[in-house]
């Protein structure tokens, strides 16, 4: 139903644009006056006033309708023979009523649930009819008001710009509130986690065994030794080390290949090769990470193990080297594409001045182009580092799940994101330290990424050079 209403709104507002545009021309010709804005602004003015209020009504109605219907149904249940049961049971009955109405309820339904399903259907029907009437009334009413304003030769351009300004402000507010909500949710759960686990034990502990919390959480009273054992089970140093180690291997692949390919495409390659080469490199960024994970697990990992066996080395079937190499290939476009753009942004006059002083092409690149493009190149590298730290699927499929504290690239290891996934898989009890550990890891990852962004910004500001 919402889709049909939105289609009607967009079709009607689209028609209003052409109607308003043509109507203002006719009115100006009949009354012999000059419009205060171009004709298409009047079309936009009429179209926006037709669509935006109606879309806002649909959005608010869709958000609040389930809560209102639920309140009405539960209020009816509380006044019936179910008045003596608690609120959680009433919620369960309400879910059964919904399931019966939508045809997903299995088993015999009681008379109370059948009656509730009929009431639920009547409330939904009433709400849908009221929404349609309200939307149609808003569309017609606001369209007539806007039409009256354009016939009075109002300042349509200022009105349109004001509307777009409000829309842009709302979009900015949504983005800020989303970020604040993410931070707030991470902080709340992390505080609960650190109320059970010592912060320094988490930050500097060497043993990561969150599954122990399942056994210990069932105890009503924990002894001192049990509390210490539980605290020691959440040492995140192996996760930090594994994340950094795999990211280091990935950057060892991505930075040289990405930077050198960017220099070649920007400075040496012909136009035809550049048109073909740059899109091909950027295709790597469009491949799903799960595909890279399959490639690492089925091809790269066994290949490294076979080479290691040939050389007499002990190589794990899931290794940090396999995950790091494939991850490095995945983030090559982040370094290559962005570095290519900043190198091309260096003014040609700098190159010509270097050539005029007798420098060769390679000397010009080393002494002039790269220093000028250094802030952008460092920014692209730090962006790639953030991408490597946050990668999950490749590590899950190619590096293993064991939290090993090792610097041997042939051993299996794991990362922060992998453990977050493993902790939150399946049904979880969010009062458990094991589940809350995922939020503590998420907060840690957020802080690390934020620090990298600050470093990138400070480096860019420090080395930025302005050219005439």
Task: Describe it.
This protein is an all-alpha fold and 468 residues long. It folds into two domains: 2-154, no CATH class; 237-463, MetI-like (MetI-like fold, Orthogonal Bundle), CATH 1.10.3720. It contains 18 helices and no strands. It has helices at 2-31, 39-78, 87-101, 111-151, 156-196, 199-204, 212-217, 224-232, 237-268, 271-286, 289-310, 320-330, 332-345, 348-356, 361-389, 393-398, 416-423, 433-463. Helix 1 (2-31) packs antiparallel against helix 2 and helix 17 runs antiparallel to helix 18. The two termini are 58 Å apart.
Keywords for this entry:
468 residues; mainly alpha; MetI-like fold; 2 domains; flat
Task: Describe the SSE topology.
Elements: H1 2-31, H2 39-78, H3 87-101, H4 111-151, H5 156-196, H6 199-204, H7 212-217, H8 224-232, H9 237-268, H10 271-286, H11 289-310, H12 320-330, H13 332-345, H14 348-356, H15 361-389, H16 393-398, H17 416-423, H18 433-463
Helix pairs in contact: 1-2, 1-4, 2-4, 2-5, 3-4, 5-18, 9-12, 9-13, 9-15, 10-13, 11-12, 13-15, 14-15, 15-18, 17-18
Overall geometry comes to flat
Percent in helix: over 70%
Total strands: the figure is 0
Secondary-structure element pattern, one letter each: HHHHHHHHHHHHHHHHHH
The Cα radius of gyration reads: 31 Å
The assigned structural class equals: mainly alpha
In oligomeric terms, what are we looking at?
single chain
| Overall pLDDT confidence | 82
Structure, briefly:
With 468 residues, the protein is mainly α. It has 18 helices and no strands.
